From TrEMBL:
The keyword Transmembrane helix applies. It comes from Deinococcus arboris. TPR repeats lie at residues 30-63. This is Tetratricopeptide repeat protein. The chain crosses the membrane at residues 119-138. Keywords: Membrane, TPR repeat, Transmembrane, Transmembrane helix. It holds the Pfam family TPR_16. One of its GO terms (molecular function) is identical protein binding.
Length: 139
């Protein structure tokens, strides 16, 4: 967060130092690495940003933001088709993550809400009653 704050204030050297320190402390910190790539993008160093975003995706191939940023870096270098492909991959991953988050939230709501938790028993009871009445009426 401190690195992002420095970047927002236009203090690139301080931002880069803090983000580099975060990478040393945690080599798998793909978000710090992403922000380093963002610094290169802002400075117009698109090939350098591309290399960093590719490293981000090596660490976390499912990171939608990495695919999107790579696509932007590629487009800024005139590699439009390649860039669009990467941006679309980022969009697909973002949609998948959103769906997964929604599914997890719904499961949590069902698990914590006593009415919803017992709803399946009500539904099963109604189905059993319908089957019972159908069999009794047909006999």
């Amino acid at each position: 967060m401190q690195g992002v704050l420095y970047a927002v204030r236009g203090e690139e050297a301080d931002a880069r130092r803090v983000l580099d320190d975060a990478r040393v402390a945690d080599p798998g910190h793909y978000r710090a690495l992403t922000n380093l790539g963002n610094l290169d993008m802002e400075a117009g160093r698109f090939a350098e940003a591309e290399a960093i975003y590719r490293e981000v995706l090596r660490i976390d191939p499912e990171y939608d933001g990495g695919h999107h940023n790579l696509g932007v870096a590629l487009r800024r270098q005139g590699r439009v088709a390649e860039g669009v492909k990467s941006i679309r991959q980022g969009q697909r991953l973002a949609m998948k993550r959103s769906k997964d988050d929604t599914d997890a939230e719904m499961k949590e709501r069902f698990a914590t809400n006593p009415v919803m938790k017992n709803m399946r028993w009500v539904v099963l009871g109604v189905l059993a009653l319908i089957i019972f009445l159908a069999l009794r009426g047909g006999g």
